[in-house]
Amino acid sequence: KQEVTQIPAALSVPEGENLVLNCSFTDSAIYNLQWFRQDPGKGLTSLLLIQSSQREQTSGRLNASLDKSSGRSTLYIAASQPGDSATYLCAVSSLTGGGNKLTFGTGTQLKVEL
Amino acid sequence: GAVVSQHPSWVICKSGTSVKIECRSLDFQATTMFWYRQFPKQSLMLMATSNEGSKATYEQGVEKDKFLINHASLTLSTLTVTSAHPEDSSFYICSAREGAGNQPQHFGDGTRLSIL
Predict the structure, then answer these.
(1) What does each of the 114 residues of chain A score in pLDDT, given as a tens digit?
(2) Which residue in chain B has the smallest CA separation from A44?
(3) Can you tell me whether residue B84 is helix, strand or coil?
């Protein structure tokens, strides 16, 4: 059974700081890994999708890496802004069940302070 | 592109009422749709997976007679919470995917259900 863990559970940083969010998963047989952002009471916004054959993806100030063999992914946020404050979720699409299951981590609650 | 619309966004109703939530893919054909449930300060838990024209596949512990899922077309899936009770109060989120398992899921904005 796939299990996804995110560290830290919560993080508070001053504006402008670079930061790293961590995600680990137990079963390396995955289709892809996604990073999402969730604002309070809202749905999910997809940030980055990394296919199992890829090592990293970049979008603006965000960079996500994937090390499938070790079961780890990191989300790097450069020059953080107060608008980045949200909960960040990683999710893996596992080969088990034909890729039909996304297993979510418990999230990292980020607060970027002025 | 890849927009998923979920309606309603918020509903409050009395215990015993049945509530229907709609999930629509606006600009793509969703061969597979998913329904998730999220309790406060917890992550998303998959409830069921549905393919167009087929019966939904429910996760262990999810009552299929309680949570009725219909995926009648490639752009619409509905979740009906039958005879809802206060313990059914939660945040329900749908997602839709076009094509195979390596394609991304696109999420709706969620529905907050409160049962009095």
Answers:
(1) 899 999 999 999 999 999 999 999 999 989 899 999 999 888 899 999 999 999 999 999 999 999 999 999 999 999 999 999 999 999 998 876 555 688 999 999 999 999
(2) B107
(3) coil
Say which residues have a Cβ less than 8 Å from residue A90's Cβ, sequence separation at least 6: A4, A6, A21, A23, A33, A34, A35, A36, A73, A75, A104, A105
| Cα nearest neighbour of B44 on chain A | A104
A107 vs B: CB within 8 A: yes
> Distance between CA B18 and CA B81 in Å, rounded?
6
Closest Cβ–Cβ partner in A32, A42, A98 for B109: A42
Q: What is the Cα–Cα distance from A26 to B89, expressed in whole angstroms? A: 31
